[in-house]
Amino acid sequence: MVAIAYTLAFEGLEGRLVEVQCAIAAGLPAFTIVGLPDKAVTEAKERVRAAFSALAIAMPAKRITVNLSPADIPKEGSHFDLPIALAVLAALEIIPAEELESVIAIGELALDGRIVAVAGALPAALSASEFGRALICPESCGPEAAWIGTTPVFAAPSLRQVTDHLTHRNPLPRAQPGEASPQAGGPDLADVKGQERARRMLEIAAAGRHHIMLLGPPGAGKSMLARRLPGLLPPLSAAEALETSMIYSIEGSLKNKGMSREPPFCDPHHTASMAAIIGGGRGARPGQVSLAHNGVLFLDELPEFSRAVLETLRQPIETGEVVVARANAHIRYPCRFLLVAAANPCRCGYLSDPRHACSRAPVCGADYLGKISGPLLDRFDMRIELSAVPLADLDIRTPSEPSAPVAERVSAARKVQARRYSGSKEIKTNSDLYGSFLDEVATPDPEGRDLLLRAADKFGFTARGYHWALRSARTIADLAGSEQVRSPHIAEAVGYRLLLVNGG
Fold it and tell me: Same domain, yes or no, for 279 and 379?
């Protein structure tokens, strides 16, 4: 007799159905797991053996073979423990084999029979719903998995409770969704003194999801401004929150086992590896670009990042997804983020500050910023050079405009865009505009068109730079409540394209 349990092998956010087949035959006592398992899966036999001992279940002195089918898909992760244990229990006729036909199981076993939390409960529940099966998962993962709401989720604290549930001795109740994480009060724009032009650029970036670059000496407020950008973004929609939460679930860092409407903010250190930023490594986990999906990715000290890492960002910025290529699979993760980059004008940081002498000017700045390629620089919709805030401005008691009214204007502009692009699946904000859509909604009036053409010719805009200026102008017009893109909107958008214009 071959008993079969069901589980999932994750490929990105998708779960592929895996049959866990168990056969017990006469022969020398052995416990073998086949089907392309990784080290964590092959070690499951020892955890299963110990968990059975804790439940006073004797392993038979026979040959036990577990096959994970299809055998050509890599099986990675400790969540295979529970389905392997259930398949063995069904082969021993301790639980009815037919009860496993309608469930998918995930969970890691402790040596005392407890079921330990695993990553990926949220996408596992979604996959279980697609396959028309219920999900059995660890107790601590129940509130997370129950968010899907389209399939029964049973959260068990131990293998004994799962056995009692499947034998109908003590059925488990359905898990209930956890509470949505409350909006955390982030830093406020009121803390920023001066830098009015940079504050305006943050508002435009938040309204249209435009990528921005901040250049300035140390202490000018670049990081301070960037960390206040998430507070200007509108809360995530239900679909966005689910998609973002699934990424954090598969990565294993979903907070409070519940969804959050708060846009994520990721700020990796410049020493981060390619796998950490783009994704990959063991299990092809999502990187920072995917963890920042529907939120903000902040790259401080941009020229200090590895050039290979920076150049790899070019495609995700354009497509909104990243492909982690492996020898036997291509795994896709969404990564539609708002990119904020900050950099000093040179290695010492004081190239443009008259109070500090730079002995290598202007070569110092050219060498330092030369690490940022023209094609990458061209993908920043808006760039601005900050100067140090005078000490007298820091002592001004008049409060700056807080984040709340700015966020209201951003929300109003986003609602205009949502109505405008309600019939499109690809376009959500002005930064997504392309082709005929761009011509249809962002064509300026004759005076604005003439201004843009003259500016593009004078400053050498690339075609991408020309289109990005149009997109930014469309967002500026939305903030102003204007149906038509006019010359003042074009002028402001062009003004944000003039920094380091050699890149576009």
Answer: yes
Please report the pLDDT score of residue 358 as a whole number.
64
In a shared domain, residues 195 and 153:
no
- Alpha-carbon gap, residue 310 to 360, rounded angstroms: 26
| 23, 150: one domain | yes
Distances (CA, A) of 295 to 42, 206, 336, 338, 339: 38, 10, 8, 6, 9
Is residue 326 assigned to a domain? yes
The residue type found at 234 is: P
**What's the token pair of residue 365?**
């700045």
Where does 358-402 have alpha helices with state H? 363-369, 374-377, 391-394
CB 153 within 8 A of CB 137: yes
Would you state the pLDDT for residue 502? 38
Same domain, 89 and 128: yes
Residues of the chain with pLDDT under 50: 501-504
Parallel/antiparallel/unpaired status of strands 279-280 and 63-69: unpaired
pLDDT digits (tens, 9 = 90+) for 317-357: 988 999 887 766 688 899 999 999 999 888 777 776 666 66
Burial class (CB in 10 A: 0-12, 13-18, 19+), 39: exposed
Count structural domains, the chain.
Answer: 3
Domain for residue 383, yes or no? yes
Residue 153 CA to residue 360 CA, distance in Å, equals 64
Whole-number Å distance between alpha carbons of 326 and 328: 5
- Say if CB 86 and CB 156 are below 8 A apart: no
Whole-angstrom distance, CA of residue 337 vs CA of residue 329: 24
CA dist 345 and 368 (Å) reads 8
Assess contact for 226 and 145: CB atoms under 8 A. no
Contacts 24+ apart (CB under 8 A), 29-32: 29/60, 29/61, 29/62, 29/63, 30/63, 30/64, 31/59, 31/64, 31/66, 32/63, 32/64, 32/65, 32/66
> CA 411, CA 404: separation in Å to the nearest integer?
10
One-character DSSP codes across 250-296: HHT--GGGS-B-SPPEE---TT--HHHHHEETGGGEE-HHHHTTTSE
Q: Beta partners for 69?
A: 19
Asked if 360 and 450 sit in the same domain, the reply is no
Contact 15, 78 (CB under 8 A): no
Measured distance CA(266)–CA(285) in Å, rounded: 16
pLDDT at 34: 96
Res 503: pLDDT: 37
Q: CA neighbours within 13 Å on the CB side: how many for 493? A: 36
Distances (CA, A) of 429 to 279, 295, 411: 25, 13, 12
Domain of 374 in residue numbering reads as 189-403
